[in-house]
Write a structure and sequence with these properties.
Elements: H1 2-86, H2 92-110, H3 118-147, H4 153-158, H5 168-172, H6 201-213, H7 217-239, H8 246-250, H9 254-286, H10 291-318, H11 326-346, H12 353-383, H13 397-409, H14 413-422, H15 431-452, H16 458-477, H17 481-515, H18 542-564, H19 571-601, H20 614-621
Amino acid sequence: MESLAQRAALLRESLGRSQAATDAVVSILGSFDSRLSALDAAMRPIQLRTHAVRTAHENIDRTLRSADVILTQFDRTREAEREIQKGPHENLQSFLDAVDRLRSIERFFSSNRSYSSSDRVLSHVNALLSKALVKMEGEFQNQLSQRSKPMEPDRLFDCLPSTLRPSSESRAEGGKHQPAGADNQEAAVYSPPALIEPKFVPLLAKLAQQLVQAGCQQQCAGIYSEARASALESSLKNLGVEKLSKDEVQKMPWEILESKIGNWIHFMRIAVKLLFAGERQLCDQVFECSQSLRDKCFSAITKNSLATLLSFGEAIAMSKRSPEKLFVLLDMYEIMCELQTEIDTIFVGESCSHMRDSALSLSKCLAQTAQKTFSDFEEAVEKDATKNIHTDGTVHPLTSYVINYVKFLFDYQSTLKQLFQEFKREDGTGSELASVTMSIMQALQNNLDAKAKQYKDPALMHIFLMNNIHYIVKSVRRSEAKDLLGDDWIQRHRRIVQQNANQYRRVAWSKVLQCLSGQGLTSSGGSGQVGSEGGNSSGASRTAVKERFRSFNVLFEEIYQKQCGWSVPDSELRESLRLAVAEILLPAYRSFQKRFGPLIENSKAPGKYVKHTPEQLEVFLGNLFEGKQERA
């Protein structure tokens, strides 16, 4: 217990000393606080003066920096002014850089109007920009005048696919249309020429951009359009494009007009795929800064040239229709269809809408005229009133003309299908073309039936029909029309050929064969069948037999002389017809001669009656239908 009490006493003593030390420290800290307050009060004026000095230094630095910037702008202004005074002729790029600097200076002072010198500097800069603008307009015009040269025809021809390039001879004549390459359009590659040297295009673009930024869009567009339109029109004129009125076109002789149409097709292809495409590309490059401006300029540049080309096409489409014009109408329609997609792509934008519409309108007008020409041709074939039929019954010129016409039509199958589809008359299977072709063929056959009636000799009438229908069938079988018209059509018309051959044989040789009949020569009346074998001359009148031989000779010689002058131009048909005649005539003659010849042999001058052997008759038959007059 005593130990514990001692420890407690020591603890109280220690706590007492700690409290005394704490009180002493508190007393000291209180003394420091009063001293620091006094010090802070003494330092406050010094701090205020130091802050003021620092602020003044910052203002001075800021002013110096602003002064430096302003001085730099002054220096840039003087440098730009020197370039503006020199003008763009010496160094166009430096001139354009100077204009850019002036615009930058203008923006700087416009946004820092608090500077006392801002208004004065802005006035000076704007004066320099106005002067630069005048010089830029002049330079833009000068550059375009120097660089916008007409394209020579040879340069254009070299941009065409090899299949469409004129020969050296036709180049000398102005690059006449070469139709031989028309079959290879799908693989054709066109390379639009550089209308202005590529190295100058970026400079023109910068000039245009500066003028547009300055608000001179109208002046810029006018300068550019005038220069490029002149170059384009000169290029087309050098190529051979003529400005013809519709009245002049419609009064031209067909031979001259046909040549001009061929050239027009060539010109359209060159104009759209090379010249117009090149102008569009150049417009897009020069006026990259403005979509509306490039469309507007392109429209202004090309409208007169396109109108000249389309006007010729419209004159043809509106001219008097005739069958020979159908193929050139199809050629023209074909090239317009070929170019329509490119026209829609090149003549893009609202500014060019009327030009796209004009091209599409021409396509439709050509299609309508071609369709009407079809109907006219069918009607003309059926109503052809040509009286000059050939006396030999050969193929009529109308037949060969119509067949050649139809053959040419099949060179335009894809074009015709597209044309019929445009009028919603084609289902894509060629049915409309087949229908039109059948109608033309039927019209021809109707006309041939009418012409055949002009022959007074029925046998020659059948020869005429046989020749012409055979020519039609043979031509169809050798052309693409075979697949479209079908085997049924061909077989039906082959039967018509055979029917006319049979009718000819019956009409031409029936009287001759009657002379070789035994009917009426014997007391029993004979068999009466032509070419019947067996029997004898018992009871036959020698006088009657002589008369029969005499009649046969007269009729045969008359037919032979006449039909040698008739013509069957197809060798196979001619030979088959001779054989068909021989098959009925020679057996009948042999039978008659064998049966009744002995009655004549013992009479006076038998050669007067039995003039020909069967072999001789066969030789004579081999001379028929050669179109040459012969005597038996």
